[in-house]
From TrEMBL:
Domain annotation Cupin type-2: ranges: 41-99
Pfam families linked to this entry: Cupin_2
Gene3D superfamilies per record: Jelly Rolls
Organism: Streptomyces hiroshimensis
Superkingdom, natural source: Bacteria
Record-given protein name: Cupin type-2 domain-containing protein
Length: 135
């Protein structure tokens, strides 16, 4: 897992349209994790973020601040701080920021149909650094 500080520089999405910043806080290295990435999105008023089935991932989007609208399957509903949106791998979801903008924390993971095909992973930490699981 590759980790980055939250205050590191952000990348801008859709430079021609409403402001939207994206910063990757953590991402997998190679195929050693089911977690694809943990991202921080800051959407200015009118900016959107989309989840599409062709991306091959599942996604959880947690609203940190602001107000917006989530559209999926022809239905649009309001979203605000403290809400969690779940987007399965075959879902089409668009989140649009309203007047005050929207800040989202997203966790993108590989779907079970993919992870079920991956080989078992074994921790490679030195023995003295491993924690025993207490059951």
């Amino acid at each position: 897992m590759i980790i980055q500080r939250a205050d590191a520089s952000a990348r801008f999405l859709n430079a021609a349209g409403p402001s939207a910043e994206w910063a990757c806080l953590a991402r997998r290295g190679m195929l050693h994790s089911e977690c694809e990435a943990v991202d921080l999105l800051r959407l200015g008023p009118g900016a959107t973020a989309a989840h599409r089935p062709d991306e091959g991932i599942e996604q959880a989007l947690y609203v940190l601040a602001g107000r917006g609208e989530a559209t999926s399957g022809g239905t649009t509903r309001p979203v605000g701080a403290g809400e969690l949106l779940l987007a399965p791998h075959d879902c089409r979801l668009t989140v649009r920021a309203l007047d005050e903008g929207l800040e989202l924390l997203t966790v993108r993971v590989l779907p079970a149909r993919t992870t079920g095909r991956l080989p078992a992973r074994i921790p490679e930490l030195p023995e003295e650094q491993r924690m025993e699981c207490v059951r």
